[in-house]
Design a protein that fits this description.
Distance between the termini: 47 Å
Helix content: 10-25%
Number of helices: 2
Number of strands: 18
Strand content: over 45%
Protein name: Toxin ETX/toxin MTX2
Keywords: Signal
Radius of gyration: 22 Å
Largest sheet: 7 strands, antiparallel
Number of domains: 1
Pfam families: DUF6060 (PF19535)
Length: about 250
């Protein structure tokens, strides 16, 4: 049985997230969501040179699921590191075992192994989780808003169930098939501000070689077939999707 590639994220804005946008009372926040609080996006306006946008203050859920403001320089260091890391990842076939072109004979029970070559954590990128918001008040805007985002794992190739289990086992309890985050909070915007709320989800990643041998009497023989595996999965903190929340100015 083959496990097909799974595309991460529920479809909505830019095919990556599911969004709920109605104004709502503060008391309706879900128990497993970040606790309700005032998010003061207007307290900062910083330029993000990686995404080439201006953003407000940046927040991240702590170990208790409460959104806390993070230092913008710290956020940008993570974004830059993630971009450079993904750019410099080993490419498929760059160091393939010498038997990579051999095939397993059909009709023989296969033996398989996963050889992990790397494990990483990275920020996936800003995902739009609201419609465009336009503050036209004389002084400022204070808006009660709810939002949600869901992300799922991805694998670059189809794998047998046995091989997929070996890949997920290589990262232990860190592996997640999916994760979501949602919240209802009041956020402040300065007069004349136009833009949208964005979430930058955190992902784990495991790289390696899937190797499959033919067998005789249950023992692997010959040289294996090898395939490059790039599996990515959403990270969680306190049971919810880990990542950064900010306001992107338009």
């Amino acid at each position: 049985m083959k496990l097909k590639k799974i595309v991460g994220g529920f479809l909505a804005f830019a095919t990556v997230c599911s969004i709920s946008l109605a104004q709502a009372p503060m008391a309706s926040a879900q128990n497993d969501s970040p606790k309700t609080k005032v998010i003061d996006f207007a307290s900062e306006r910083n330029y993000d040179p990686i995404n080439k946008v201006y953003v407000g203050a940046v927040y991240k859920p702590n170990k208790d699921g409460v959104l806390e403001k993070v230092d913008f320089k710290e956020y940008m260091e993570d974004v830059k590191k993630s971009k450079e890391q993904q750019k410099n990842l080993p490419q498929s076939g760059s160091s393939a075992p010498s038997a990579s072109n051999k095939s397993v004979e059909e009709g023989t029970p296969p033996y398989s192994e996963f050889e992990k070559t790397g494990e990483y954590t990275f920020s996936k990128g800003l995902q739009k989780v609201s419609n465009t918001i336009d503050c036209r008040n004389v002084v400022s805007c204070s808006i009660a808003q709810n939002w949600s985002i869901s992300q799922s794992y991805t694998v670059n190739i189809g794998l047998s169930r046995e091989m997929f289990q070996k890949v997920t086992a290589s990262v232990g309890f860190s592996w997640q098939y999916s994760a979501s985050a949602s919240s209802i909070y009041t956020f402040n915007l300065a007069s004349g501000t136009r833009g949208y709320i964005a979430f930058n989800p955190r992902f784990g990643q495991v790289l390696g070689w899937a190797k499959t041998w033919k067998t005789i009497d249950g023992d692997p023989v010959g040289e294996p077939t090898t395939h490059w595996v790039d599996a990515r999965y959403p990270k969680k903190v306190n049971g919810q999707l880990d990542g950064y929340v900010t306001f992107v100015h338009e």
